[in-house]
Amino acid sequence: MRRLLLPLLLFGCVFLVPEVAHAVRISELTDSTMMDRAVRFFTFRDASLRNALIGSMLLGICCGLMGTFLVVRKLALMGDALSHAVLPGVALGFLWNMAKDPLAIFIGATIAGLLGAGTIQLIRNTTRHKEDAALGFVLASFFGVGICLFTMIQNVPGGNKSGLDKFMFGQAASLGRGDVWLLAVIAVLAVGTVAIFYKEYTITSFDAGFARSLGMPVQIFHYSLMLLLAFAIVSSLQAVGVVLVSAMLVIPAAAAFMLTDRLGIMLLLAAIFGLCSGAVGAFFSFVGRNLPTGPFMVLAAAAVFAIALFFGPRHGIVSRWWRQRSRSARVQRENTLKAIYHVLEGNEFRSEHVSLRELAERRRETLEDVQRQLTAVRRTGFVTLFSDAVTFTPSGWQRACEIVRNHRLWELYLTNAAHIAADHVHEDAEKIEHILGEDAVRQLEKRLNYARRDPHGKLIPGIEDISLGSIPQPADRATGFGPAPH
Amino acid sequence: MNAPDSSSTPLEVHDLTVAYHKKPVLYGIDLQVPEGSLIGIIGPNGAGKSTFIKAVMGLLPVSSGWVKIFGKSYRENCHRVGYMPQRESVDWDFPVSVMDVVLMGRYGRLRLAQRPTKQDREIARNCLEKVKMLPFANRQIGNLSGGQQQRVFLARALAQESDLYLMDEPFVGVDAATEAAIIALLRELKSRGKTLLVVHHDLASAKEYFDKLILLNMRLVAFGDTDEVFTPEILQTTYGGRLTILSEVAQTLSTTP
User: Fold this and answer.
1) Is residue B104 within 8 angstroms of chain A, CB to CB?
2) Selection from B46, B161, B49, B179 nearest residue B105 by Cα
3) pLDDT band of A470, cuts 50, 70, 90
4) What is the interface pTM, i.e. ipTM, of the complex?
5) Would the CB atoms of B54 and A209 count as touching at under 8 Å?
6) Cα–Cα distance measured from residue A424 to residue A191, given in angstroms and rounded to the nearest whole number
């Protein structure tokens, strides 16, 4: 009980103390140290800071969800083109009543965005140009118009232009109450639409032709998605900036794509990654004295992407490398087991031990190398090692028999069924022996009529040999092999 | 002509003409497909075989003519049609599982925003079982071989439980054993009174697989029982080069502003 009290008290101090007592405008905080600012961020006291943080997290969710559909539909560049195309709309929204009115700017930007999307469609349908050229054209020309309009606004006297310059690189701190409400509405709309029509958006993204054959209004789903995308872009502009909003669309979704192969999970992960990137971006922007937010958000998202790239369980580079390493270590161990078997076989199973020297001669390696390999094999419990003699444990004997059987079966299969010369099959069998599963072995045995001799005349250990012991078996764990019971 | 009751005719096509960018690819197709038959659509490359079945479903804009499915327009009767597109038509890296794809065959029967029910899942599982892909139900579709992907698409079409099936090259990229299994499934569907139209490119097996053949080469060359239309003369007409004047005029049409 008492252990719970302290955190509760701390929690109360931080969150429940009336905000009036602490309310300080961000602009008055310029003299505090970085540490102070970090503490201030985490204590969540300033209203404007709360706006910045909540807004950034909401936009992360919107961008993550919409970005997922862009990535799986291979439309990643569409986000880039649309985000640049909305710039003239922002300027016109401002010119409407010479003020930074969230709604006017939202409407203006959405119209510009849709106009951009329409232009792309028009170029693609009426000219020989493919999507990429259309995207490039719309991106640059709309952006150019936007820049011209912005320069014009700067030169026009009057009006409250503060904060307008933030549209380029983003500033979460400039988010007002209205902006956050707008973001909240868009986020609810995006999450709701995707959740309700998940089935429809999945099938129209995956196989539009099939969806149309079912009588689904594919075009409506496509355009509603594009509209939601435009909403997400426009409402995020102020915090991330025109230049980088496309990165917030693509990067969290691309990171999520590397971690899963289910669309539902990908949507969830992308939203979470977007949310975290938004929060981290807002934090650094605040701690670094109102640095632009967009670049920090994008860097945070890129860090998530890098982690997914390297450490993703299935497709990650490090994980793949690790799997490859453990596989080659296993192959190495199994080759050692096989070599021990070969030495025993060379002695016609008269002895149950193999000396390190025999093994080294067989493998054409130094004693030290053999010693090192045996140590690795011993750790798996397949052999026991007394001074310089190696003995199989029962499980080691079984595994060695299996490897040798796999090798010889495969050689026989290649010579008999694929008609490859007997002296060509060894190299291939060296690889296959480690990956043949029991099912494949049963099939091979059946296909080869349970043959007992490989192409070189050597015995193929069968399942009866391993369990019944028609070739020598380890009599018990301590002594290794006993004579064959005939 | 036929009996006046057209609602038992799975597919009726009248004067169907399709053009890509003003260039005609199919001319005036007239066709009445009887119920309960397994029909192959054959013809050389670029003859408009895929175009034909896509146009039937309204996936391509039609320049003239009309299509009736069991006596009604496609839109009214689309729930009675099952479709198996070409394997290359989708991105196999898309993050969905085999089960998700087969369930899509049920979407046509679900209302807007309605989730697949337990019964839908049961049907999807049965269809996967039929194509022997049930063990792969939870795999991501990109981890399958070409033949397995083809079988997933077949299972999705089966899950539609339709009366008329349109299949675009279901035998591409499958091994001989799978091909035999697929044709057995198609025959079983036929024996249950379903009608199947199958785009096929291998002449050698066409004679053996199908009761009827549609021979296409920009226009309908012949349609009838396999024994009657699988003759050297008709095949020569179908495959013996393009009709030069027809394709030249088509070319001119597409370049005229």
Assistant:
1) yes
2) B161
3) very low
4) 0.91
5) yes
6) 60
Q: Hey, what domains does chain A have and what are their CATH numbers? A: 2-311 (1.10.3470.10), 322-478 (1.10.10.10)
Give the CA radius of gyration of chain B: 19
Counting residues of chain A whose pLDDT is more than 90, the rounded percentage is: 34
Buried-state track A21-39, b at ≥16 Cβ within 10 A, e below 16: eeeeebeebeeeeeeebee
Which of residues B256 and B212 earns the better pLDDT score?
A: B212
Nearest to A132 by CA among A77, A79, A189: A77
Nearest residue of A to residue B109, measured between CA atoms:
A214
Strands (E), A171-221: none
Task: Give every CB contact of residue B181 below 8 A, 6+ residues apart in sequence.
Answer: B131, B132
What is the SS3 string spanning chain B?
A: CCCCCHHHCCEEEEEEEEEECCEEEEEEEEEEECCCCEEEEECCCCCCHHHHHHHHCCCCCEEEEEEEECCECHHHHHHHEEEECCHHHCCCCCCCEHHHHHHHHHHHHCCCCCCCCHHHHHHHHHHHHHCCCHHHCCCEHHHCCHHHHHHHHHHHHHHCCCCEEEEECCCCCCCHHHHHHHHHHHHHHHHCCCEEEEECCCHHHHHHHCCEEEEEECEEEEEEEHHHHCCHHHHHHHHCCCCHHHHHHHHHHHHCC
Contact A72 B95 (CB under 8 A): yes
Determine which of A261, A267, A314 to mutate to test the interface with B (most B C-beta atoms within 10 Å). Answer: A261
Q: Using one digit for the tens of pLDDT, what is the confidence trace for A284-327?
A: 888 887 788 889 999 999 999 999 999 888 778 888 899 899 99
Which candidate, B10, B83, B38, places its Cα nearest to that of B190?
B38
Q: For residues A277 and A300, what is the distance between their CA atoms, to the nearest angstrom?
A: 5
- Pairs across A and B, CB distance < 8 A: 77
d(CA A117, CA B166): 34
Would you call B100 an interface residue with chain A, using a CB distance cutoff of 8 Å?
Answer: yes
| Distance linking the first and last C-alpha atoms of chain A | 73
pLDDT digits (tens, 9 = 90+) for A419-463: 888 888 888 888 888 888 888 888 888 888 888 788 877 888 876
Question: In chain A, what residues touch B97 (CB-CB under 8 Å)?
Answer: 261-262
**Separation of CA A208 from chain center:** 26
Pairing of strands B195-199, B38-42: parallel
A207 vs B85: CB contact, 8 Å cut-off?
A: yes
Instruction: Note the pLDDT tens digit of each residue in A35-75.
Output: 777 777 777 777 788 889 999 999 999 999 999 999 999 98
pLDDT for A356-372, tens place per residue?
888 888 888 888 888 88
Amino acid at position B175, single letter: D
Test A197 with B112 for CB contact under 8 angstroms.
yes
Please check whether residue B245 touches A, CB under 8 A: no
Question: Which DSSP symbol is given to A17?
Answer: S
Give the whole-angstrom CA distance, residue A350 versus residue B231.
73
Mutate which of A210, A262, A267, A315 to disrupt the B interface (most B C-beta within 10 Å)?
Answer: A210
Asked if B167 reaches chain A (Cβ–Cβ under 8 Å), the answer is no
